[in-house]
Amino acid sequence: QVQLVESGGGLVQAGGSLRLSCAASGRSVSSYDMAWFRQAPGKEREFVAVISWSGERPYYADSVKGRFTISRDNAKITVYLQMNNLKPEDTAVYYCAAGSWGTTVDRFGAWGQGTQVTVSS
């Protein structure tokens, strides 16, 4: 069973940066594709970024392209989301997920507990 623990969220001013981390553990976890999703109050969970198990094929939602970077370190079994030039609309709970490469929630069977990101204007 895969377990995911996110960290790195917090409060930041617009234009600032944060780096989220997702520590993974469990059998064969390094063979899973990994993604970040986010959920704002009153909204559905939405795709942010995904990366393959090998660290290739990063793909981003249009809303974060050019500002966010997903990466992974399989030696540390950790996935990162570097977020630059943050905007108030990026405010949400950010979730790490493990599964099969894609952009929809149903592609991922393991989820972390989430970390809050709040961007003030």
Task: Please tell me about this protein's structure.
This protein is an all-beta fold. It contains no helices and 11 strands. Strands 2, 4, 5, 6, 9, 10 and 11 form a 7-stranded mixed beta sheet that branches. 31% of the residues are buried.
Output the keywords.
single chain, 121 residues, mainly beta, 7-stranded mixed beta sheet, 4-stranded antiparallel beta sheet, 11 strands, 0% helix, 51% strand
What is the general shape? globular
Share of β-strand residues: over 45%
Structural class based on helices, strands and sheet pairing? mainly beta
Element-level helix/strand string: EEEEEEEEEEE
| Average pLDDT metric | 96
Briefly, what is this?
This protein has 121 residues and is an all-beta fold. The chain has strands spanning 3-7, 10-13, 18-25, 33-39, 46-51, 59-60, 68-73, 78-83, 92-99, 108-111, 115-120.
